[in-house]
Amino acid sequence: MKGFAMLKIGQTGWITKDAPACGPLDAICKPLALAPCTSDVHTVWAGAIGDRKDMILGHEAVGEVVEVGSMVKDFKPGDKVLVSAITPDWGALAAQGGYSMHSGGMLSGWKFSNFKDGVFGEFFHVNEADANLALLPEGMDLGAACMISDMVPTGFHGAELADIQYGDNVAVIGIGPVGLMSVAAAAIRGAANIYAVGSRKNCADLALEFGANRIINYREGDIVEQILDVNHGEVDRVIVAGGDNDTFDQAIRMLKPGGKIGNVNYLGEGDYVKIPRVEWGCGMGHKQIVGGLMPGGRLRSEKLARLVVANRIHPEKLITHTFHGLENVEPALMLMKDKPKDLIKPCLLYTSPS
Ligand code: NDP
Ligand code: ZN
């Protein structure tokens, strides 16, 4: 089969491989929709997880099941399915301890385009199909469904990690597609004020639509000063979905003692993050920082899909650029790398190569 791959750090290209084999608990799918991710960009061009040779990229997909293993109970060939970007081993002790994303080792629930070939191929393999796939709800927009792979669950995980409570004042640093879904999640969890930090106009407009009250432009001055000013003091919670290793410095400075920072940003480069000693209460300020990969899994996909079906969230609005056909996965990924001003998220609807 054909697939679009990371050949080595900094280099991508088309390769041909054998189609993946199906284990007894697994499924083989073909893609119906795909989306490239900022994480693919970190993986290839920053070498963020180390070198990978000839590894098919991509972890965001909607699929159609073409084969299932002998022990799969709930899916059959022809089923259209939501595919979570994170596909843990649910029997692992880490998963039993509540950290499915780290089953098999830190970040090892993230298998597509990390430890095995991803979804940018004619076929892809899903481990533990019953636990990691969910049926595509009837009539659901394929673009929205594709966002349930990663953008929605990751953005929502930022709100879970920051432990947003009703009435909280919340800063969301970064309003690309992930941060925009964090804004939506913070609103659903009952935040009072949501300060959304970004600079692109289309992202800012969507942040306001998803529930932000104010846009803070990091290019127009120190965001800590801007947020302390507009909030008349420190915020209760911060979600970090953009920025860099120094962003924690700003997040700590704008946070109340007892506040929580939920980070879902993938730090692609550098050795250390910056935490300001005094503003962190000399180590005693009860300003918690939790960074997490989203948990994955069928239940989560089904619940997030319910929010879409019930019209409470509109992830299809993230999609600013639509491509057709697997052969266009390359320009879609390059768009994600180049991040033109009018981009929020590209999505690719699949048609079989002739
Ligand atoms: P984008 O690049 O589209 O968005 C990044 C956002 O951060 C933009 O709003 C950008 O502003 C803003 N930003 C950039 N620099 C700064 C700065 N110095 N200070 C404040 N804000 C800044 O990324 P995505 O939304 O696609 O992804 C966000 C992160 O989440 C990525 O690192 C991605 O790899 C990661 N991720 C993590 C996952 C997980 O499970 N934890 C899963 C999926 C993705 P501007 O408007 O100027 O562009
Ligand atoms: Zn992703």
Structure report:
By secondary structure, the protein is of the alpha/beta class. The chain has eleven helices and 16 strands. It has helices spanning about 40-45, 95, 130, 140-145, 150-160, 175-190, 200-210, 225-230, 245-255, 300-310, 330-340; strands at about 1-10, 10-15, 25-35, 55, 60-70, 80-85, 125, 135, 170-175, 195, 215, 235-240, 255-265, 290, 320-325, 345-350. The strands form three sheets. Strands 3, 5, 6, 7, 8, 15 and 16 form a seven-stranded mixed beta sheet that branches. A six-stranded parallel beta sheet has the order 11-10-9-12-13-14, with helices on both faces. α6 (about 175-190) links the parallel β9 and β10 (about 195). The two termini are about 15 Å apart. About 50% of the residues are buried. Zinc ion binds near residues 60 and 85. Zinc ion binds next to loops.
Record keyword descriptors for this entry.
7-stranded mixed β-sheet; 26% helix; 354 residues; 16 strands; alpha/beta; globular; 6-stranded parallel β-sheet; binds zinc ion; binds NADPH dihydro-nicotinamide-adenine-dinucleotide phosphate
Secondary structure layout plus pairing:
Elements: E1 2-8, E2 11-16, E3 27-35, H1 38-45, E4 55-56, E5 60-68, E6 80-83, H2 93-96, E7 124-126, H3 129-132, E8 133-135, H4 142-147, H5 151-161, E9 169-173, H6 177-188, E10 193-197, H7 201-210, E11 214-216, H8 223-231, E12 235-240, H9 247-253, E13 255-263, E14 288-291, H10 298-309, E15 319-324, H11 329-338, E16 345-349
Parallel strand pairs: 9-10, 9-12, 10-11, 12-13, 13-14, 15-16
Antiparallel strand pairs: 1-2, 1-4, 3-5, 3-7, 3-16, 5-6, 6-8
The structure holds NADPH dihydro-nicotinamide-adenine-dinucleotide phosphate and zinc ion (ZN).
